[in-house]
């Protein structure tokens, strides 16, 4: 049904864009939850030295396999218990947050730079540039990421830096795809043509006309790839080909704990839940940002 | 005197929305006899499409449809169980919509969709249904029916698709066809063809036709009876001749003024228009809805407006006497 | 039409070759394959002999060309570790991985599509929120952790399912779920979005006006149109699952191609790894081509005229 003039009149008295955005953001539970949890994890990582009594690396074989505080036989000086080498689990959890966040952010930045550059170039210049970039994207998509990442890490040695680099150079595809289509959409719009007509140079057009409009897409993809990188690193470390012991990566902690998972289940449940909550928070944040900045795109 | 095929008294459609209740249709009355053509005329938002959807029972659960009388061939539609309503729909009464480009399912052939219309209501084989479909395609003026049956909707033009829609409505030889702005989305040249087709078919099959439109030119061509709707009400109704010869309601007169008539309208003369917009129908609505745009409005127009008869079956809702002056 | 297909095929071949070039270079650039074969106690002479025998002292491009030439004839060389033809190794294991993949995608489709349809029929209802929650939670859960938890619950605590091996069909239940659940969220969301859009289409109203009942409208008219992008997505997800099979197969000790990949990587068994990368990318490309075909088959607008 066509909207009546009465309904149209209603929409004229709507709020300003900024106010609408704020109202939507605060009403969006997913966004708020994601932000809150992410904030918590950030705080935990930042203040890890203050929050944890012990170092995540100190072994204390006399105090091995102590259960967390809610189980019988717990040691009050180790709130979340200890692992098979007597290392404080709370400390390892908190410092592990640093690893996950570091990997998530740096990888997202690297892959974001690569992917955005490629995608924007393809979208804006079109023609041969677009063909080349699309071909690259197809090549990258055809590569089995886990397999290739595993292989490279195995050959060059596992370490935090290598993992970040490998993931950073592999996870740029979604950036490229999304940025390319966003730029292509905007490029055809009137105001870009208008800018060109008054003589704006290409970099200026890119910066002032196109980028502001694709930034919200960029942020959403960034959160998705952050989550993706965190999960991938955890999987690589779990398989032994990621971060190496004794670094407290959550994935590595799960791997180390799996032998004893029946009798000391906290060894795998605690880091697993931490991973789950962190990735959940990032995903909710990304979804929430997308819903809030472009609600028409919602299903 | 045979009973009317469709009897509607005090039909209302209310839509609950955030800001209250939108009274989209506010007490419609009309009767339709077998073989008659009723044109419901009105601008966007007058409630005319909702009326036709309400009769067909195609409005969602959120929309509240009420009526004192809503009878089709003597059967009460208000309390009819869904299964019976489904049996009626497409069989005894059929509908043609405004947008031929999107009203056909892109995934199935024309033949498939035509046959479905028949086989939902009759126990016939696919082959028999296809034969009838081919027949009807011929009747609606589509040549090479056999090959058309195998085609997909996207392979047909808008005009052809609308003909297919008409054929689809006719598959079960309904007694009533409701056409909701069937020609609005088509080229002017095609419009005339489709209208002529509808008129011919109606005559041939002795069907009743309700044609919903905003185009008075269409009305002039094809209507037996006319009902003019404004803001959810029928403000004037009667035979087509009566309405065109002596429009009684100021809104109808305004509408007719808008149409340029070759020979009568002088070149360079501004075309008539009705200033103002339709009032909000949310919450309680009182008095004449047209008074904000009417030159003849008086204080009494804010109270309940009587339904009056200009002559015989020609009724209208206004305090004022019908002007005797000539209308262009 | 034929020209288009050939062009797509040609492009696919080009992509595959590029992938193999990249992986070949990466694998051979990292350290010394000769040492990997010879072992830790190799002498200079051993290494020199190996270099000559395997041709590692030749230029990289030449080595690659050699490999490629053999590969298109089905000869992927010999495994450094098993001393068996790589092709044979892989073909033995591939059926396990394919079975797992097919089961996983079927599981994902059979759960996600109905959920998506239900969520679309009743948007913002309880079932919609539950479906959304499942989809969001599913995307956040690490698959290896999920696998471990399943083993603890179903194999150890309740002794319902076997934790490892691949002898019987019960061995495939948990791996199927662990591999498949990751594809569920995307499929469910796409189904839901597609159904919501389609249910508002004019032709649905036409179907109802013809007197069609709710079930017919939902399945014959709505889902038939909404499912088209989902089929494409499923085919592509299937391609991704091959990569994901590495983690799942190693947790559940299923002797498939993924497990072989992990073992070979650990052993620096370059020919096997190289071959597996090639095979996995070929399958991915195959699945994307299949998904294009499925698209064309399901949507007459692409297929005809």
Content of β-strand of chain B: 15-25%
Main interface: chain pair and counts: A-C, 44 and 47 residues
Number of domain units of chain B: 2
The best one-word shape of chain C is flat
Oligomer: heterotrimer
- Our estimate of the beta-strand percent of chain C is under 5%
How far apart the termini of chain C lie comes to 11 Å
Give helix and strand order of chain C, one letter per element, not per position: HHHHHHHHHHHHHHH
Succession of helices and strands of chain B: EEEHEEEHEHHHHEHEHEEHHEE
CATH topology of the largest domain in chain B: Rossmann fold
Question: Residue ranges of chain B: pLDDT <50 for 5 or more in a row?
Answer: none
In CATH terms, what is the architecture of the domain at 96-254 in chain C? Orthogonal Bundle
Question: What is the class of the domain at 96-254 in chain C in the CATH system?
Answer: Mainly Alpha
Mean pLDDT of chain C: 85
Q: What percent of residues of chain C adopt helix (DSSP H or I)?
A: over 70%
Main sheet characteristics of chain C: none
The radius of gyration over CA of chain C amounts to 24 Å
Determine Rg of chain B (CA atoms, Å). Answer: 21 Å
At CATH level 2, the architecture of the largest domain in chain B is 3-Layer(aba) Sandwich
| Strands side by side in the biggest sheet of chain B | 7-8-9-3-10-11-13-12
Which regions of chain C have little confidence, pLDDT < 50, spanning 5+ residues? none
Topology, element by element:
The complex is a heterotrimer of chains A (299), B (328) and C (305).
Chain A (H helix, E strand, L loop, with lengths): L4 H8 L4 H11 L1 H18 L1 H4 L37 H37 L1 H16 L2 H12 L3 H11 L2 H15 L2 H8 L4 H37 L11 H8 L8 H28 L6
Helix pairs in contact in A: 3-5, 3-13, 5-6, 5-8, 5-9, 5-11, 5-13, 7-8, 9-11, 10-11, 11-12, 11-13, 12-13
Chain B lengths: L5 E12 L2 E13 L4 E5 L6 H9 L7 E3 L2 E4 L2 E2 L5 H7 L4 E4 L13 H10 L6 H14 L5 H5 L8 H13 L5 E5 L7 H18 L2 E6 L2 H7 L2 E6 L2 E7 H6 L4 H9 L48 E5 L2 E4 L11
Parallel strand pairs in B: 3-9, 3-10, 7-8, 8-9
Antiparallel strand pairs in B: 1-2, 1-4, 1-5, 5-6, 10-11, 11-13, 12-13
Helix pairs in contact in B: 3-4, 3-6, 4-6, 6-7
Chain C lengths: L1 H28 L3 H6 L5 H11 L5 H13 L13 H36 L4 H15 L2 H15 L15 H8 L3 H16 L2 H8 L4 H13 L1 H25 L4 H10 L3 H29 L1 H4 L2
């Amino acid at each position: 049904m066509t909207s009546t003039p009465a309904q149209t009149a209603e929409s004229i008295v709507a709020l300003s864009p900024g106010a609408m955005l704020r109202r939507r953001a605060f009403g969006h539970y997913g966004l708020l939850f994601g932000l809150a949890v992410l904030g918590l994890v950030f705080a935990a990582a930042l203040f890890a030295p203050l929050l944890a009594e012990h170092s995540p690396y100190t072994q204390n074989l006399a105090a091995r396999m102590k259960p967390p505080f809610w189980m019988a036989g717990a040691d009050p000086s180790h709130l979340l218990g200890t692992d098979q080498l007597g290392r404080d689990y709370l400390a390892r959890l908190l410092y592990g947050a640093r690893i996950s966040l570091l990997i998530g952010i740096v990888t997202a930045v690297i892959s974001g730079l690569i992917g955005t550059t490629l995608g924007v170039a393809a979208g804006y210049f079109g023609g041969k540039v677009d063909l080349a970039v699309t071909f690259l994207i197809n090549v990258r998509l055809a590569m089995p990421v886990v397999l290739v990442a595993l292989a490279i890490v195995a050959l060059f040695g596992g370490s935090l830096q290598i993992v970040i680099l490998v993931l950073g150079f592999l996870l740029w595809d979604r950036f490229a795809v999304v940025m390319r289509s966003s730029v292509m959409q905007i490029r055809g719009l009137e105001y870009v043509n208008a800018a060109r007509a008054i003589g704006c140079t290409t970099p200026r057009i890119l910066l002032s006309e196109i980028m502001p409009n694709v930034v919200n897409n960029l942020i959403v993809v960034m959160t998705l790839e952050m989550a993706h990188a965190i999960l991938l690193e955890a999987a690589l470390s779990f398989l032994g080909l990621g971060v190496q012991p004794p670094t407290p990566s959550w994935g590595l902690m799960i791997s180390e704990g799996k032998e004893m998972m029946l009798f000391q289940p906290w060894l795998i449940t605690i880091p697993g839940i931490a991973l789950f909550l962190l990735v959940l928070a990032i995903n909710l944040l990304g979804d929430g940002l997308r819903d809030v900045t472009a609600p028409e795109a919602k299903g | 005197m045979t009973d009317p095929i469709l009897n509607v008294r005090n039909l209302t459609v209310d839509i609950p929305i955030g800001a209250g209740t939108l009274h989209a249709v506010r007490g419609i009355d009309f009767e339709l006899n077998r073989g008659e053509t009723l044109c419901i005329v009105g601008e966007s938002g007058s409630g005319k499409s909702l009326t036709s959807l309400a009769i067909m029972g195609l409005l969602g659960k959120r929309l509240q449809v009420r009526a004192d009388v809503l009878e089709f061939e003597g059967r009460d539609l208000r309390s009819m169980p869904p299964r019976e309503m489904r049996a009626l729909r497409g069989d005894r009464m059929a509908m043609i919509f405004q947008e031929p480009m999107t009203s056909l399912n892109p995934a199935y052939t024309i033949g498939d969709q035509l046959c479905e219309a028949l086989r939902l209501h009759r126990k016939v084989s696919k082959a028999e249904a296809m034969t009838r479909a081919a027949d009807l395609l011929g009747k609606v003026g589509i040549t090479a029916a056999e090959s058309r049956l195998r085609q997909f909707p996207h392979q047909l033009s808008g005009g052809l698709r609308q003909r297919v829609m008409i054929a689809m409505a006719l598959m079960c030889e309904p007694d009533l066809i409701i056409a909701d702005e069937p020609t609005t989305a088509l080229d002017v040249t095609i419009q005339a063809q489709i209208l002529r087709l509808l008129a011919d078919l109606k005559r041939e099959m002795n069907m009743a036709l309700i044609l919903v439109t905003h185009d008075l030119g269409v009305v002039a061509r094809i209507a037996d009876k006319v009902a003019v709707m404004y803001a959810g009400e029928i403000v004037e109704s009667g035979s087509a001749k009566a309405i065109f010869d002596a429009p009684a309601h100021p809104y109808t007169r305004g509408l007719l003024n808008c149409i340029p008539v070759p020979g009568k309208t002088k070149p360079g003369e501004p075309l008539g228009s009705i200033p103002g917009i339709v009032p909000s129908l949310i919450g309680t609505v009182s008095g004449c809805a047209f008074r904000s745009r009417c030159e003849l409005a008086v204080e009494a127009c804010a109270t309940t407006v009587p339904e009056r008869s200009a002559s015989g079956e020609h009724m209208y809702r206004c305090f004022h006497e019908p002007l005797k002056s000539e209308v262009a | 039409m034929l020209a288009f297909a050939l062009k797509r095929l040609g492009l696919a071949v080009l992509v595959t070759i590029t992938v193999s070039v990249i992986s070949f270079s990466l694998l051979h650039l990292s350290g010394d394959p000769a040492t990997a074969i010879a072992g830790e106690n190799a002498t200079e002479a051993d290494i020199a002999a190996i270099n000559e025998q395997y041709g590692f002292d030749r230029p990289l491009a030449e080595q690659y060309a050699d490999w490629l030439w053999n590969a298109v004839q089905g000869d992927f060389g010999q495994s450094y570790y098993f001393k068996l033809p790589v092709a044979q190794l892989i073909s033995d294991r591939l059926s396990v991985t394919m079975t797992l993949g097919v089961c996983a995608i079927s599981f994902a489709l059979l759960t996600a599509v109905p959920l998506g349809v239900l969520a679309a029929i009743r948007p913002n209802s309880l079932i919609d929120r539950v479906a959304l929650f499942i989809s969001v939670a599913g995307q956040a859960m690490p698959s290896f952790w999920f696998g471990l938890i399943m083993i603890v619950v179903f194999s150890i605590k309740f002794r319902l399912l076997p934790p490892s091996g691949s002898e019987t069909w019960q061995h495939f239940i948990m791996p199927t779920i662990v591999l498949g659940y990751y594809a569920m969220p995307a499929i469910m969301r796409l189904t839901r979005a597609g159904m919501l859009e389609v249910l508002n289409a004019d032709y649905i109203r036409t179907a109802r006006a013809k007197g069609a009942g709710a079930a017919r409208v939902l399945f014959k008219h709505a889902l038939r149109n909404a499912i088209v992008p989902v089929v494409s997505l499923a085919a592509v997800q299937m391609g991704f699952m091959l990569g994901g099979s590495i983690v799942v197969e190693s947790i559940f000790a299923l002797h498939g191609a993924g497990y072989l990949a992990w073992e070979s990587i650990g052993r620096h068994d370059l020919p096997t790894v190289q071959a597996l990368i090639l095979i996995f990318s070929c399958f991915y490309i195959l699945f994307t081509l299949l998904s294009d075909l499925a698209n064309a088959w399901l949507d007459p607008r692409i297929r005809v005229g």
